[in-house]
Please model this.
Amino acid sequence: MREWVPEGHLIWFLSDVVDSLDLSAIMRTYQKDDLRGRAGYHPAMMVKLILSADGHPDHDSLADFRRRHLPALADLFLQVLRLCQQAGLVKLGHVALDGSKVKANASKHKAMSYERMCRTEADLTRRESRLRKIREAKAALEAEAREQAEAKAADARQRIAEREAKEKDRGRKFGGRPPTVPDPDTAKPKPKAQRNFTDADSRIMVDGATKSFVQAYNAHAAVDEHSQVIVAATLTQRANDKQDFLPLLTQIEENLGALPRRVSADSGFFSETNLSDPLLSGVTCYVPPEQSVKEPALAEAMRERLASEEGRAVYARRKAMVEPVFGQIKEARGFRRFSLRGLCAVQAEWRLVCLTHHLLKLFRAQAGIERGSGGRKPRPQAWREHRERICPCFQSALASAS
Model:
């Protein structure tokens, strides 16, 4: 193969990286004493082919391997992120958060609203197969509505208890009505609540770029300013971004052992709960409040910060940091739709996509890629020097391989 592929090619770098990764979670699922059938492909080779998106061995072998080891493959995200950290590509000076709707492996035309399910249920007494699917989807929406009501009831009870404690301290009652505790047993889905028959975990969302309705998931990324490395990645069924602000920051700390000094995000991430969390005591946030925000003190302080010279400069960097990453993934690499179905599988697939983004960043940094009249050209000697200097693990991996 060395006669076919030049030394500075991405494939050699990718092979070295995989040789340096801990694949024990995949390896231990294979039994050495099981000699039935033809000899299998080596798991490390399969990982290399999945990450490079090559077409050999056949599609079924690759698809089966990915399905069998999807959680372990997704967990390699952290190992490659730490390689980026070792290579000096992660500084945690400024991290920008954003979300993007990525289409599900399902058509929005295969979704049905709860209202229509109730109507159709009465009209399909003879079409048992379809009726069964509708009833299952209807029951799932009802269960979801009960769970949401239970969460709201618990929150209302907590607010009532806090209200009563404050009234006791002050010696008199507050004006106005106390919070209402909803009854989960009477909770029903909203008439327009929908469920998709192909991928029940996906949701109808508005695509930010086209403003059209799509069957999708909401994929989030936290991007480091220094080299646009994704330092945290989450994916949810929620179109709203607010609930993903703290999980992204918590994941950054878990992944890299520290939080960034500055964090920027658009107004969709703003909430009093997010920005007053103790986790952020050492972090300066730049998150503009929406016009409808009802927390005047916190909102006013944030607006003042963003209006300062430093605030304007920091926030101006946000789009240039995080939006190109989604552009690279969606436009340059053509990843606009998930291949898998179901929330857990799609979450793992998103981490796998972000992992390959890391590999490209790491390769370009270590290959010493330079711009010229003929485009980008790798410098093989610089690539070897960077590989050996920045990632000592490559040296031991290469030594054992040879």
